[in-house]
Amino acid sequence: MSSSNETGPTGPAAPATSTDDAILDAAAHLVVHLGVQRTQLAEIARRAGVSRPTVYRRWPDVRAVIGALLTREIRRTQEQVVLAGEDREAFVDAVVEVAVRLRDDPVIGALLHSETIVEYVVERLGTSQLGLLDAIGAAVVQGQQHGSIRAGEPSEMAAMVLLIAQSTVQSHRMVAQLLPEQAWRRELARALNGYLAP
Asked: 106-117 as b/e, with b when 16 or more CB fall inside 10 Å?
């Protein structure tokens, strides 16, 4: 599995590669340090070093900026984790690793624990979730061809894998004392292996 040297919005990071990234980097910093509710479009623009019309040309409001930020952060995390093989165990390891990284990411954490973001996680499938479903579905097909993942409709199985992992990430704080780090990883892997095994 590959890893990133970028430390993100709470520490030094690589310079933004585009105006879009500069805006989203500014939003990430504000979300982490002020919270989603207190993040305003004017402050995002000021921190990004751009005008408000520049932001408005890309996104109509703060909610849309936050949605784009969530999509970017999940995609970046997903891209950092590479399948180590074609079998079920490699797939489950990758899902657990993505879940751990999302769980521990300060931006994702701030977003997932905000009422503002409920729509993007609970009420509808967002762009980031659709991307995850595509990747999970492709890995399920690969595991089925390998013979280590049971038969079934890949899109349906991908949806259930996403639900299992997403709910585990969202609820980890609630059970942190009952499931310390290694137990959390082990039990998530066991749940996924049990669901996917032939």
From this structure: bbbbbbbebebb
pLDDT reading at 2 higher than 50: no
> In this predicted model, what pLDDT tens digit does every residue of 127-138 receive, in sequence order?
778 889 999 999
Residue 123 has a pLDDT of 57
Query: According to the 3-state scheme, what is the secondary structure of the chain?
Result: CCCCCCCHHHCCCCCCCCHHHHHHHHHHHHHHHHCCCCCCHHHHHHHHCCCHHHHHHHCCCHHHHHHHHHHHHHHHHHHHCCCCCCCHHHHHHHHHHHHHHHHHCHHHHHHHCCHHHHHHHHHCCCHHHHHHHHHHHHHHHHHHHHCCCCCCCHHHHHHHHHHHHHHHHHCCCCCCCCCCHHHHHHHHHHHHHHHHCC
What pTM was estimated for this model as a whole? 0.82
Q: Please give the mean pLDDT across all residues of the chain.
A: 87
